[in-house]
Amino acid sequence: AFFIFPIIYITYISLTQWSGFEAPSFVGITNYIKIFTDPVFIRSIKNNIIWALVAGLIQVPLASLVAIILSYKPKGWKLFRTVYFLPQVISGVALATLWAAIYNAQYGMLNGILEFVGLDHLTRNWLGTLESAFPSVLIYWIFYIGYFMVIIFADIQGIPEDFYEAAEIDGASRIWQSISITLPLAKGSIVTCMTLAMINGLRQFEQVYMLTNGGPGNRTSVLVLYLYKEMQAYSYGTSSAAAVVLILVGTVVILTLRNTIGKEKY
Question: What is the pTM of this model?
Fold first, then answer.
């Protein structure tokens, strides 16, 4: 009722023209032709794919690395675990507002630091320049790894100490133990985190909406923002078509991960 029906309904709406003020009229695949010939939609797909790949191939490996380091319980590991997880309890809107201030062209901390260290030539309007807008929105988000770190860390804590003791007797270093024991045995949670991270990358909205609203020149537009703007324009058929595409892309990502990295070998 709460999952299958909405997907069926939104698929039906995607085949209609509907402004929300009258009965939907069937138009077939017209909405899909419209969005796939829209440069903004194509740009949004590209940005989401980049976001998903960065999430799966950079953010989760960073979380895995930190989780492995913390699993050895170095001095102050509980403090660092808390610090890394702390941003997860802060609203994404609040974080985006914070980074909007950091990226501010005139009074932002980033430009201030660059000027202080003598790199004035690198200062710019980070969110208003075509070349830097999307990387600026994306890069800061990568380092919020706390959620995935906690999942992987919990899985690592469940690995029997006997494996490490046997490896240590054989002369294996900690790095080699991590490669040959920790990573293989924590593979399930890592693949799960990759799946979650890539899906989060596909449905990004708050950061882009708060920082750039898709600008400049739609350079930072993403799928959810695209369908949101179509809904604001009372074009529910087009926004539903974009939502169906988002669902399909997410399904492809999940199946690809499960049949490649997440595939068990017996």
Answer: 0.89
- The Cα–Cα gap between 160 and 185 comes to 10
Phi-psi label, residue 213: left if phi above 0, alpha if psi -120 to 50, beta otherwise: left
Q: Per the structure block, which two tokens stand in for 81?
A: 């675990």
Helix (H) or strand (E) holding 13: helix 4-13
CB atoms within 10 A of CB 171: 7
Rama region for 55: left / alpha / beta (φ>0; ψ in -120 to 50; rest): alpha
Of the candidates 154, 179, 181, 153, the residue with the CA atom closest to the CA atom of residue 165: 181
Provide the pLDDT for residue 266.
39
Taking the CA atoms of the chain, what radius of gyration do you get in angstroms?
A: 22
- Please give the single-letter amino acid code of residue 153: F
Helix extents (H) in 26-91:
30-36, 39-54, 60-71, 77-85
Nearest to 207, CA basis, from 51, 97, 62: 97
**Cβ neighbour number for residue 124 with a 10 Å cutoff:** 16
Nearest to 47 by CA among 194, 198, 195, 201: 201
User: 66: which 2 tokens?
Assistant: 């930190």
Contact 148, 197 (CB under 8 A): yes
Query: How many Å apart are CA 137 and CA 99, to the nearest integer?
Result: 9
Query: CB-based contacts of 134: which residues, under 8 Å, 6+ apart?
Result: 47, 50, 219, 220
225-257, pLDDT tens digit by residue? 999 999 999 999 999 999 999 999 989 988 888
